[in-house]
Structure formats: structure tokens, C-alpha cells
Amino acid sequence: MTLIASDASSYRLLPFRFMRMQAESDRDVLITSETGEYLWVSDPQLQDLGFKRLQPGSAFYRDLLARHFIYEPGRHDPLPQMAAQYRSRKDFLFQGPALHLFVVTLRCNHTCQYCQVSRAPLGGSGHDLSEADARAAVERMFESNSRVLTVEFQGGEPLLAFERVRQIVEWVVERNVLEQRDIQFVITTTLYHLTDDILDFAKLHRIQFSTSLDGPASLHNANRPTPTRNSFERTLEGIRRVREHLGHDAVSALTTLTARSLEQPRAIIDEYVKQGFSSISLRPLSPYGFASRSAQRLDYPIERYVAFYKEALAYLLELNQQGVYLSESYASLLLKNILTPFSSGYVDLRSPTGAGTAALVYNYDGYVYPSDEARMLLEMGEEGLRLGSVHQPLSELLRSPVMEALLSSGVAETLPGCSDCALVAFCGADPVEHFARQGDPVGHRSFSSFCKKNMGLLKHLFELLRDADDDVQRVLLSWLNRRSYADVGLSGYRG
Ligand code: SF4
């Protein structure tokens, strides 16, 4: 809910939102300012604030003043400081798309049950990015004004089209002699088709690998079958080879959670610890591509995912206190949004939406999409979300009717449900997901999985920040600062 200023006494209210949460203490109401500052208050305090019964000079009054919930007309002008805070939080708006996904082929030898991209068979033709389209995509990427660029190769299985990957990397490196951008290359791969030649090339250009590890062998092989039924072993072998050639941190892993996965949070986490990863990403299934068709078997209500997530997070917090460093990547992004003046910049947690403004996808068919999810809809027969051809200038693609539609439904602060939600400063807008799930990019938050997930996770983190003991707080701060638990002291950041 939102309260707006009235002018009945010496101080004025600034716009703020509030939300009641679980009551562990009398401070069960979270109030958040327009610029993302927050404070826990009791119900009587909220009433005093709203009805302008605050005692000037009290600690509570000073807190509210410092965090821009109130101001004193004639004594100070909060707007310049609030504008600076707002600018910091929305700083990503000053940069063009930084994440550029090149879908070099749709071919793949895996038959993953939840596959989001409707892969093509190994020998399938007409599913590779052409040389001319790849060259044009590199041009589009450099038309972005972002100083930092990530070139991510996706599939299908990109290593099946490695010659195209090699060409693109070489063109980018050559062009960057003049451009002088900060460029990171990533290949998202099963690692199944890794060769020494690929590893040598990756070493030369400091290419990172991102792979899928769904948990222990039984779970991984069930989720990600191959004709030879050894996908888990081949993944581990690939991880070992990348680490040997390029160093331990040159490979990261993602897990996709099927209904089967939700029964074994500890086993999944234990596998990541065993394989020496420092980060795990516990992401739910997406409603796209094959995943949608297999939904009845694999999907689950988002409430089950949130319950799983809380259990997994509790286990991770326990392990970290024992000296194992393993952060959960989505929690780390949310913590950055909550505890710092800056946005994590993560595409799904941006408002205005990150689709097209933060990321662009150059598909194998020569068309450009505003996000990976948007191109996955194409494989479901939905073409409506393409921005245009890779041969059109970036300025034209970003002015396309699809971009206009996404942006007009992609500002969370203006969306029904979000506009008066106390969590909006830390959340994002995802018009592509709402279009995919609800057939409407604006969407209805009461039925939105995106909202239920973010609301569930944000509330849980806020409650941990308010109620958990110092050891848990130290783990959360260690994830935020990417430092070991032992290196983190507690500073007085609690609201
Ligand atoms: S999506 Fe849900 S949690 Fe996020 S701001 Fe909107 S209403 Fe709040």
C-alpha cells in the first residue's frame, strides 16, 4: 500500500509503501521509500507516522528523516539527495544492452525433458547461424554504448558449431582493438563435445564455460538423458578438463529444478559442494519451449518451489557457517538490491524491463529477440516477440513496436499490483514471462508466478535480515561481498 503526503503539521510525508510480514517481534511492518530505503516499524509507529503524531527529535523521527520517509519544509530539501539515490539505483538505464547472446545452432544431442529451446537433431540442417548473420550480429553488438559487453554463446549445443564461435570471437577481438570495450566471452554448454583444440582457443581468449549440473547422478541423468545415458559422468569429465586447462573458476554451473528435484534440496547442494563450486543457482522451471509441453510431468506450483527454496537456503546457511563457501546466486542479487544503493543489474530484476534494454539475442535464423525467453516462445510457434532482422541497425531494433510494447508494460512502478507493493524497489518487471504465462505482457500479479516467486523470496530474506542471529547475517553479508564467512564482521545495517 502507498501513503502520500498531507500537510497538517511541521513535517511532511514523502511517498512510501508498507507491507505487513510475519510477526517475530512488534516490528512487523516493513516500510520502504521511493528510493529503496527501508525500516521495520510497529503498527502504532505506522499509525503515528501516517497521522503525523511523531515526536520531532525522537530517534524514530530522525531515522525517518534520514531515510527519506519524511521531510521538514523550509529546513531541508530532500529532493536533490533522493534524485541522486534514484539515479544510482537506475544507473543501468544509461547503458545500452550489455549481454549479447549468440544462438549459433539449435542442434543438440541431449533430450532434456525440460529443454527450453526445442533443440534440433544432431544432423539437422537449417539450424545454424549463417556467417553473414553472425557478422551483422557483431556489428549490432558494437552499436550498443555499453562499455562492458558479455558475448554468450548459446544453443542447442554451441560446441557443435564451434567454427562459428571461433569466427565470432576472432571478429570481436579484432574489432575491439579500436573499440577498447571490456569484453567477457561465455559458452553455455553441456561440455559433451569439448576438445583440446576448443580448450586451447578458450584459454587464448579467456573464455568462461557455463554448464548444467542438476544434482547427483540419478537426478542429473533423469533430467538430462543422452543416448549413451552418461550425461552426469560426461559433465563431470568436462568440468575437470576445463579446470585443468583454464583454472578452477573458468567453469560455473546452473541447476534446473524439476518436480523430482524439489524432493532433494540437500542432495543437490551436496553435489555442488562435492564438485567444489562456490555458487549455486536454484532456479525454477521456465514456461517455455518443451518445458511447457512437458509441464504436467515436470512442473509444479510456484508455492512448492518457494518452500523448496527456503529449505535449501537454510541448509546453505548452515553449511556456510561451517566454513563451506557456497552462495545462492539469486539470493545474492536480491541482497544487493536490498542492502546497497545500487541495482544488481540482473535482467529479470530490472524496472524498466531488462528485455532488449539489457540483453539481446541473435537467433540462428537471423532474427533478433529481446531475451532468451522471447526466442524460446518462437519455438512454441509464437513469433510476436521478435524485434527485427539482425541486418537492421540497433537503433531501429530498439524502436520496434515489440520494444515499445515491452517497455510500456515493463515499468514495475506503474504496473497494477506492483505500483503499491513495498517490495517494488527491489523487484523487477518481466513482461515476456507474463506474456508467456498469461498472454498479456502487463499480467495479473495475483496469478503471477514471477510475483509469487519474488514476493516469497524477498519476504523471506527481509525476515532473515530482521530476525536471524548474527551468524546467519554474516553469511548473507559474505554472499553480498563475495568474501569468506570468516572475513565478514557485522556492521549496524539492520533496519
Ligand atoms: S512482482 Fe510482486 S513482489 Fe514484485 S513488485 Fe510486483 S507485486 Fe511486488
Task: Describe the overall structure.
The protein is of the alpha/beta class. It folds into two domains: 2-89, no CATH class; 96-397, TIM Barrel (Alpha-Beta Barrel), CATH 3.20.20.70. The protein contains 19 helices and 17 strands. It has helices at 43-50, 59-66, 79-89, 131-143, 162-179, 196-204, 217-223, 231-246, 265-274, 289-293, 295-298, 302-321, 329-339, 372-379, 394-397, 401-408, 431-438, 449-467, 470-481; strands at residues 2-3, 12-13, 16-20, 29-33, 38-41, 70-71, 99-103, 148-154, 182-188, 208-212, 251-257, 279-280, 282-284, 327-328, 359-362, 367-369, 388-389. Strand 3 and strand 4 (29-33) form a beta hairpin. Helix 12 runs parallel beside helix 18 (449-467).
Bound molecules: iron/sulfur cluster
Main β-sheet, spatial strand arrangement: 13-11-10-9-8-7-15-16-17
The CATH class of the largest domain is Alpha Beta
How large is the share of residues in beta strands? 5-15%
Keywords: Iron, Iron-sulfur, Metal-binding, S-adenosyl-L-methionine
GO molecular function: iron-sulfur cluster binding; metal ion binding; oxidoreductase activity
Cofactor: [4Fe-4S] cluster
Protein name: His-Xaa-Ser system radical SAM maturase HxsB
